[in-house]
RNA sequence: GGAGAGGUGGCCGAGUGGUUGAAGGCGCUCCCCUGCUAAGGGAGUAUGGGGUGAUUCCCAUCGAGGGUUCGAAUCCCUCCCUCUCCGCCA
């Protein structure tokens, strides 16, 4: 959520800034709601004050043994008036709140103009796409029977996977490898979190209320949702907390499955492991001091790149343009890995700075010193990396043309010496 | 799943209708005292919001939401959570 005070001061300026991402702010609606809110709140608080003063008088009179009846009667219809103003206020307040919760974050000034992912400028490239003396296969062909979509379709439907044997082991090795690098070399603390969260948690990070169609709902006594990313539970660890300045930054890493409806992508990326309803991810989250978050963004980008470099996978970095930017992000850098089977780069990591946008929804704050007032922290996160897509990239980049896949050197400690996998066709 | 007990400020903990946003203690901050250490004395110390140029002022918050009342931490209802015992169980 954006700062309501700044919003009040300069709604036109905010509307202009939001236009960069193609969001049209309903200024008239905002002004109407804000005016009503202000009027009603002032009137409501005035009546409440009046009532409080009168009630204290009555209390005093009663203690003094006086007759309180005349005082009670002198209040007249204050109670009913207050009730009706309060109801009106609550109505307008929740409408305004809902309005604010649907407004995306303001893009940082450095965010490039553009509408779709095709407009994202490439910042740099690392590594060279491999040259094969045989026709490159895509990961579905390489994996053969180890990738069993016939089974997953029967169990769950489309966009799920069943993997077998060595392929799953490689998948597991990747998770272990990434967690080890981030905890031992990059200073992240590993955390295990719930995969099912409540509405407040989903709202704080920005998935709700606007994107309920994108997430899986779990039926039960209260509304709960499957997490679309570890960002949701991990960032919410600091929800409604006041941290000490000296604790910052907090750096968390968590491996979780991610569940996404992919409701807007019918018929898109239907082959293989590219876009599934369920996939694994190792996620990096940082909670930082507000003037350290841009530095942290660079750090997370570098942390994610380390994984790709150790795995010797060619990739490039792009800066998301205004139109492609996620709802809560002020700026996002995507890392895209080279996929020989598709002959293109695909996202394996998305690293974002949310500034205080999520922190305000979450009321996640810190105190600079023991005496200072609480201030909102900044939150960031990035994949480090998406496991399914990394696995896929290894199958495609390390295929040897003879029905096998070589294991990247960095993973050898995790495969107990096995250097090459062979998949049945 | 069954039975019971609870949820109060950073923490512990009092408070069953009336100047209680909340006693007392611990912690923390500042000051005084003390040759060091230990101890002692005093003052301060919640969060969110609103109006104002500002000091100041006002409103809300004792798990959440409703209700009763002139007035609710305190009474009633619903929900959530925690703990104990029993049952079941990876």
Features:
single chain, 425 residues, alpha+beta, 8-stranded mixed β-sheet, 3-stranded antiparallel β-sheet, 13 helices, 38% helix, RNA-binding
Question: What would you note in describing this structure?
Answer:
The structure is a single chain. The protein is an alpha+beta fold and 425 residues long. It contains 13 helices and 16 strands. Strand 4 (217-218) and strand 5 (224-226) form a beta hairpin. 35% of the residues are buried. It binds one RNA strand of 90 nucleotides through residues 38, 41-42, 44-46, 48-49, 51-52, 54-60, 62-63, 68, 71-75, 78-79, 221-222, 242, 363, 369-371, 374.
Q: State the helicity in percent bands.
A: 25-40%
Physical arrangement of strands within the biggest beta sheet = 1-9-10-11-14-8-7-2
Number of helices: 13
What's the alpha carbon Rg, rounded to whole Å?
27 Å
Mean pLDDT: 93
Q: Beta-sheet strand percentage?
A: 15-25%
First-last Cα distance: 51 Å
The parts where pLDDT drops under 50 for at least 5 residues are none
What is the fold's blueprint, element by element?
Layout: H1 4-9, H2 11-19, H3 27-63, H4 69-74, H5 78-101, E1 122-126, H6 139-143, H7 149-155, H8 165-185, E2 189-190, E3 196-198, H9 199-205, E4 217-218, E5 224-226, H10 231-235, E6 242-244, E7 250-259, E8 278-288, H11 293-310, E9 315-319, E10 331-339, E11 344-353, H12 357-362, E12 365-367, E13 375-376, E14 378-386, H13 387-397, E15 404-406, E16 420-422
Parallel strand pairs: 2-7, 6-12
Antiparallel strand pairs: 1-9, 3-5, 4-5, 7-8, 8-14, 9-10, 10-11, 11-14, 12-13, 15-16
Helix pairs in contact: 3-5, 8-13
The chain binds one RNA strand of 90 nucleotides through residues 38, 41-42, 44-46, 48-49, 51-52, 54-60, 62-63, 68, 71-75, 78-79, 221-222, 242, 363, 369-371, 374.
């Amino acid at each position: 959520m954006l700062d309501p005070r700044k919003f009040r001061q300069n709604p036109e300026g905010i509307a202009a800034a939001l236009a960069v991402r193609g969001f049209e702010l309903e200024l008239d609606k905002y002004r109407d709601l804000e005016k009503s809110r202000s009027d009603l709140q002032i009137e409501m608080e005035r009546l409440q004050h009046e009532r409080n003063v009168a009630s204290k008088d009555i209390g005093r009179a009663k203690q003094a043994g006086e007759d309180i009846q005349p005082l009670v009667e002198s209040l007249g219809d204050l109670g009913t008036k207050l009730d009706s103003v309060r109801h009106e206020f609550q109505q307008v307040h929740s409408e305004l709140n809902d309005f604010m919760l649907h407004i995306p974050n303001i893009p940082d000034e450095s965010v490039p103009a553009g509408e779709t992912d095709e407009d994202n400028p490439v910042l740099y490239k690392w590594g060279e796409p491999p040259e094969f003396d045989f026709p490159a296969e895509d990961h579905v062909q390489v994996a053969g029977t180890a990738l069993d979509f016939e089974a997953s379709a029967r169990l769950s439907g489309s966009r799920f996977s069943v993997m077998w044997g060595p392929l799953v082991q490689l998948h597991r090795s990747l998770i272990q490898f990434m967690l080890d690098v981030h905890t031992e070399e990059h200073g992240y603390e590993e955390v295990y979190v719930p995969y099912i969260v409540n509405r407040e948690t989903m709202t704080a990070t920005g998935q709700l209320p606007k994107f309920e169609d994108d997430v899986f709902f779990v039926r039960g006594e209260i509304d709960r949702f499957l997490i679309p990313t570890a960002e949701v539970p991990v960032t919410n660890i600091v929800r409604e907390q006041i941290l000490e300045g000296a604790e910052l930054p907090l750096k968390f890493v968590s491996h979780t499955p991610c569940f996404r409806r992919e409701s807007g992508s019918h018929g898109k990326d239907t082959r293989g492991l590219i876009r599934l309803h369920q996939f694994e991810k190792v996620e990096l989250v940082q909670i930082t001091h507000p003037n350290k978050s841009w530095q942290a963004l660079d750090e997370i980008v570098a942390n994610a790149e380390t994984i790709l470099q150790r795995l010797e996978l060619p990739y490039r970095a792009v800066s998301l343009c205004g139109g492609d930017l996620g709802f809560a992000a002020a700026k996002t850098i995507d890392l895209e890995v080279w996929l020989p089977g598709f002959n293109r780069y695909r996202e394996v990591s998305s690293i974002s700075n949310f500034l205080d946008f999520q922190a305000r929804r979450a009321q996640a704050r810190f105190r600079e010193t023991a005496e200072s007032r609480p201030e909102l922290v900044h939150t960031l996160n990035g994949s480090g990396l998406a496991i399914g897509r990394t696995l896929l990239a290894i199958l495609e980049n390390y295929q040897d043309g003879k029905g096998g896949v070589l294991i990247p050197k960095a993973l050898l400690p995790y495969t107990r010496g096995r250097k090459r996998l062979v998949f049945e066709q």
